Amino acid sequence: MAANFWESTQRRHWQFSKDELAQMRENLEESEQSLVQMFPLPQRRHLNIYFNQLTGVSELGRLGKRLGVRQQALATAQTYLKRFYCTVEIRRTNPYLVIATALYLALDSLTLDISRLGECEFYMISEMHSQLIVHQPYRTLTSLQSDLFLSQDEANLALSIVNDHYMTDLPLLYPPHIIALTAILLALVLRPNSPGGTATNLAAATAALVQAQSQVPARTGGSSQHTTGVSDKERQQEARLNKVQRYAGFLTESNVDIEGMVDCTQELISFYECHEQYNDKITREQINRFVKARGLDKP
Amino acid sequence: MDLDTHDRGAKGGYQSKVKVMDKYRVVGFISSGTYGRVYKAHGRQGQPGDFAIKKFKPDKEGEQIQYTGISQSAIREMALCSELRHDNVIRLIEIILEDKCIFMVFEYAEHDLLQIIHHHTQQPRHNIPPSTVKSIMFQLLNGCQYLHTNWVLHRDLKPANIMVTSSGQVKIGDLGLARLFHKPLHSLFSGDKVVVTIWYRAPELLLGSRHYTPAIDLWAVGCIFAELLSLRPIFKGEEAKMDKKTVPFQRNQMQKIVEIMGLPTKERWPFLTSMPEYSNLSTLTPPILHPGHHHHPHHPHHPHHKSSSAAASTSQLEKWYYGYINAHASTSSPASNGSLTSLGAEGYRLLAGLLEYDPEKRLTAAQALHHPFFGGSGSASGMGMGNASSTERISGNCFEGLKTAYPTRRVSQDDNDIRTSSLPGTKRSGLPDDSLRPVKRVKEA
């Protein structure tokens, strides 16, 4: 239910361990070995980036953006897509039809020409056992924004991280509040131009989490000594550190799954790295190849 | 059809993994409505118990059924029912999507409140035993509280939608109009403009409120409570039909409420004056006080006078209540397990708390469960819900202690073929007076 994630079908049926998820996917590929060999596909995260562009979350968005679709509905559609491809081998489907159907299903009010989509809708709902209610991190994010005194920039960054996590397996691995908390953490520590890049960012995030986990009260490294001659930049830096430490304290008190957050952090940072290798052309071509070759685009 | 097709949803068409006829044997037809039809079924694979299978009718009917996309309300009902798990909410077993049709399989309940109330109106008319009333109300409120704490509004509570199993468990059914009310993607007002069968429709909806809250369900629960006592709908208005897409003011229904509850005032209901239909209130006939009579032919329009306005807003509910719980005392036969008199003053207070004009002052489901009417503990010993600190026990079996059994649901044999079923033209087969009930949704009428 909307209020009770712990009793929800999402919690009971659509959250997996990494091993379970890997096993399910392996089974799917084994059931269609020849297809898998004949039609190689880019890594899953790259497929997700491609699908994400189609659904319109990104700036390049097409279908979704044109429709003025709201963020939560898009996130729901992406979740449907993920659930569906947990139980159905992608090469057996026309992903474009499946994406359109997921959007249609998530959107309540979208009207399109229906006949083929209507059939795919039956397929999709059936595979998902009519479990269509999706819990998302957005609510936690919104409610914590004021509690944690996040600036608008930080909140926006956290929001875009939440949007990005739909391109990873995280929605199938962790409850939404863990995602939201991780996104806030990353929004507080990520600095696009920090020397050392992702490694530094990852280190900063992990340090904060280790601190939260070990429940050691935070200490800013001798900052109190700098009473004079502090530059604005240093002052900002210090304010930010304080914020991160306050947040670590908050996590400690809230008794959340810190290990889960560590894992989410790693997944997200590794996703951003892998995003850099994404090749739109290759991804599109490889998908179109099996769709065309198998006549999946024909009614 | 080619059952070996592997590329389902791609080539060769979608085929359901589960076939409704392989798994269930339909034994009869229960009812039909705008949504489709409901059948009674037994399991073919050793599943215990009986089942009610709700088949949604395809949007367009004809020789060749096409996929047309599943309606918003069906999707909503499917998604919500998949999440809900509570003793007092009808349980969904599974949903089968097969051959362009949707089959929702529910646990079967032998009775519903409409049928139980109807049974008591049969000669000799006799009241529903107070212990049964109490148990039904407690279980109904319990289910309601569960829905509301999970941000679900039922929006169409009425006796026909409240199921009762043969072991006396009350189950809220038919979530066809239910919605989540926590930050919905679309305003709750958009989409379906008119909800709740008119006799159970809350005054704020009648006055044009667009703000849907759980309180609308509690008003309906109040109406059902009254109906369990009097065996007839307390506010039995006539529905004004939709006129060219504009929703008319339901004058007749509001008049029925005013006759018993008095005219609402802004003193008791501060937001009253900001209701869209507020101006229409002045066109209603204020109730005329006739001691001992609540039903009387009302006179044509009465001009308001300052002196009469206090009387006009006086509630007749207490008089109504005692009229019923005492009137039946003499007629109740020994077999009817006691007079309603025992429900006493707390029964009136609970009723008045549920039929409160101001939705913000109206009892919530949780408050009602803690009402002294139930012993004040908010827990029922028979239901395994907390300890029994109440002085009196409320059973989780509303039939407990009854000497007679209610007749079981009538199931017709005319149409047992779930696969072919033609247009749903037939009404519910069970009760003769059901045809008098207003249709479920105005916009579809």
UniProtKB/TrEMBL annotation, chain A:
Extent of the signal sequence: none
Region (Disordered): 218-238
One annotated GO molecular function: cyclin-dependent protein serine/threonine kinase regulator activity
Domain (Cyclin N-terminal): residue spans on this chain: 61-124
Pfam families named among the record's database cross-references: Cyclin_N
Biased composition (Polar residues): 221-230
Top-level lineage group: Eukaryota
GO terms of biological process kind: regulation of transcription by RNA polymerase II
Name recorded for this polypeptide: RNA polymerase II holoenzyme cyclin-like subunit
Automatic annotation (TrEMBL), chain B:
Catalytic activity: L-threonyl-[protein] + ATP = O-phospho-L-threonyl-[protein] + ADP + H(+); [DNA-directed RNA polymerase] + ATP = phospho-[DNA-directed RNA polymerase] + ADP + H(+); L-seryl-[protein] + ATP = O-phospho-L-seryl-[protein] + ADP + H(+)
Basic residues composition-biased segments: 291-307
Any Pfam family the entry gives: Pkinase
Region named Disordered: 286-310, 409-445
Positions with biased composition (Basic and acidic residues): 430-445
Keywords, alphabetical: Activator, ATP-binding, Kinase, Magnesium, Metal-binding, Nucleotide-binding, Nucleus, Repressor, Serine/threonine-protein kinase, Transcription, Transcription regulation, Transferase
Cofactor: Mg(2+)
Occurrences of domain Protein kinase (ranges): 24-374
Cited InterPro entries: CDK, Kinase-like_dom_sf, Prot_kinase_dom, Ser/Thr_kinase_AS
UniProt GO MF annotations: ATP binding; cyclin-dependent protein serine/threonine kinase activity; metal ion binding; RNA polymerase II CTD heptapeptide repeat kinase activity
Enzyme class: transferase
Annotated EC: 2.7.11.22, 2.7.11.23
Subcellular location: Nucleus
CDD domains, alphabetized: STKc_CDK8_like
Superkingdom of origin: Eukaryota
Main location: nucleus
Cellular component annotations (GO), alphabetically ordered: mediator complex
Family: Belongs to the protein kinase superfamily. CMGC Ser/Thr protein kinase family. CDC2/CDKX subfamily.
The protein's assembly and partners: Component of the SRB8-11 complex, a regulatory module of the Mediator complex.
Full protein name: Serine/threonine-protein kinase SSN3
